[in-house]
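#lab-general

N.A. 3:47 PM
ok so I finally got the sequence cleaned up, no stray characters, all 366 residues accounted for. can someone with queue access submit it? mine expired

B.Y. 3:52 PM
send it over

N.A. 3:53 PM
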Amino acid sequence: SDGNFTYEFVDPDQNPVAAQNAGISGDGKIYLEMDDRHEIVSYASEESITSALIRLMNPGDRTVYFLTGHGERDTESTGDDAYSEIRSALEAKNYTVKVLNLLVDNSIPSDAKCVIIGGPIDPLTSDEITVLRQFSAAGGALVILSEPYRLTNIDATDDPLSLYLNNEWAITLNNDIVIDTNSGTQPLFAVAAAYGDHAITEKLDGRIAFFPASHSITFSTLDNVTTVELVATIADAWGETNFEMMEEEGNVQFDSGEDTAGPIILALAAENSSTTSRMVIIGDADFASNAYFDQYANGDLLINSIDWASGEDDMINLTSPETTSRSLNIPSSLTIALLWISFLCVFPGLIVAGGVTSWLIRRSRG
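B.Y. 4:20 PM
back already:
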C-alpha cells in the first residue's frame, strides 16, 4: 500500500481501555479508521473488509429509488426473479435503497441520486413520465431495464416511456426479441460480443454478460445528447419480429426488411450536456435478477451503470466481491460400497496376482 495503510494488533484483555475507546466488545473484531470516520468489521472475510473500506472511502448519503407499481422486480424478495442481490450490492457500497410509487407520491424525493425502472410489466402513465421528465431535466439520473414488449402488457405503439425516450433522447426501444446464434442451444440468450468505450464497461473486457429474452435498442444523434453503445452482439444476431412463428413453430430466421439487423445494441448510456442528466438503458431485466446477478459480468454491468448514472464515477468497479459458495457432494451408498470393494478386494487381488505371475515366470526360467 506504499504507506497508505497501517495496522496494529490489540489484545482487548491486555489493553481494555483501547478496546473500549474503539467501541470493541469481544475478540476478533477489526476496527478500520480513515480520517474522522471508522467502521467495525465483525468477521474477517474479504467481502466484509472490502465493503467497509468502500464505505470509508465514499462517505455521504447516496439514495437510489426503485420504481414500483407496474410489476417491477421486488428488491426485498429472495426469489430467482427478484432484485434482492442488487439491493445487497448497492448497500455494500453505502447506497440507501428505497422504493418509489409515483402513482401514490406524484413526486421524486429531493435526495434521489438515481431512479431505477426495473422491468415494468404494465405501462407507466403520462403523469408519471411528466415527473420523470422534470427529474431528468433538473439533472436527475435514470437507469431503465426494459423487457421485450411481447413479454409485457405494454402497447409498443403507445407506450409513454418509449415515446419520451424517442422524442427527447432519440432512443428507440424496438418491438422485437433478440436471437443470438452465438449462444448455442439457447438462442434467446443474447451474449455480449463487444463493449463500448465507456467508464461503465472499461474493465469488463474479457468477461461476458448475457441477457435472457432481450430486445434491441437503437438511437439517433441529437444536439446536446451524447449516446454511447455499451453492449453489442455479434453481427449474425438479429431482432426477431415474427412472434407468431416463434411461438407456434419455434423456428425462426432473419428476414431482411422486417427484422432488426445485427449487431444488436443491448445496452447504451446517454448524457445531456445541457442538463447534466444521465441515463442508462438495457434491453432486458432478467439479466440482473437474483438467478443471474452473480454470473459472469452481469452484476458488475448493472452496478457500474447505477454508479455512473448517479455521478459516482469513482465508485465504478469498487463492488465488493461475493463469497463463493462451495459444497461437498457426498457419494451415494452404492458408490461408497464399490469403493470399499475395490480397496478391500480388487486392488489387493491385483497385487497378489501380479506377485504370483512374477513367481511363476521366474520359476519357469529355473
